[in-house]
Design a protein that fits this description.
The chain is an alpha+beta fold. The protein folds into two domains: 92 residues, no CATH class; 111 residues, Immunoglobulins (Immunoglobulin-like, Sandwich). The chain is built from six helices and nine strands, in the order αααααβββββββαββ. Strands 1, 2, 3, 5 and 7 form a five-stranded antiparallel beta sheet that branches. It has a four-stranded antiparallel beta sheet with strand order 6-4-8-9, with no helix packed on it. The radius of gyration is 35 Å and the shape is rod-shaped. The chain starts with a helix and ends with a strand. The model has no long low-confidence stretch (mean pLDDT 86).
């Protein structure tokens, strides 16, 4: 009775598998201790699959442990999770070491400066996935009259710390009378170049002018 009295839920394990069992294994330990003291084999009480319990009841031999582990369903799960792991590893290997996102500031859509220049504003997020600080050059293309200016910076370069993201406000201007200044929408491309690794990324966006 020692193996019965130790159960914290008060169930009688001689009644078989029960919902109240919390699998604490105190009954197994108590039973093994008693069997060892009286010189009997350990394992009278042990973990057992429900299918094996029914087989033993009818005198059949329980399945080996490996047959419980290596079932078609578990092998399918192992295969699927392996594919997921391989996919994540490939994505990590082939990912670009620099990245950028561009969000046009639309309040207001554009600003007319005192000399008639049209200016658009963009919030550019620069991601440096390298293990050291990198100097990025930001440029604009789409029309030769367009110019770019970085807020709080001299020139078109910015240093992004290692493994960090930097938010940089960027101004793109078009001279008065130029095609982008007169057009409602002009497709442009903002580019970032890593001056050390010579990597480049590009993002398309729109320059809004004063439509005639």
């Amino acid at each position: 009775m020692a193996c019965v009295n130790v159960c914290p839920t008060g169930i009688d394990i001689r009644d078989g598998q029960q919902l109240e069992c919390i699998t604490c294994a105190l009954c197994i330990d108590a039973c093994d201790d008693v069997m060892e003291k009286i010189g009997k084999p350990r394992g009278l009480i042990d973990y057992l699959a429900l299918s094996d319990e029914e087989a033993e009841t009818h005198g059949a031999t329980p399945k080996p442990v490996w047959r419980h582990v290596f079932r078609p369903r578990t092998m399918m799960y192992i295969g699927l999770w392996s594919l997921v792991g391989i996919g994540l590893l490939v994505a990590l290997i082939v990912r670009p070491d620099i990245d950028m996102t561009v969000a046009p500031v639309r309040n207001p859509i554009y600003v007319t400066l005192s000399d008639g220049t049209i200016r658009n504003t963009y919030d550019v997020r620069l991601r440096n996935k390298h293990g050291d600080d990198r100097k990025f050059d930001i440029s604009v293309s789409g029309d030769p009259s367009l110019a770019i200016l970085l807020e709080g910076r001299e020139g078109n370069s910015v240093v992004v710390p290692a493994n960090e993201t930097l938010l940089q406000r960027v101004y793109v201007t078009a001279p008065a009378g130029s095609e982008p200044a007169k057009s409602d929408r002009t497709e442009i491309i903002l580019s970032v170049e890593d001056k050390v690794g010579e990597e480049q990324v590009h993002t398309s966006t729109v320059f809004n002018g004063k439509a005639q």
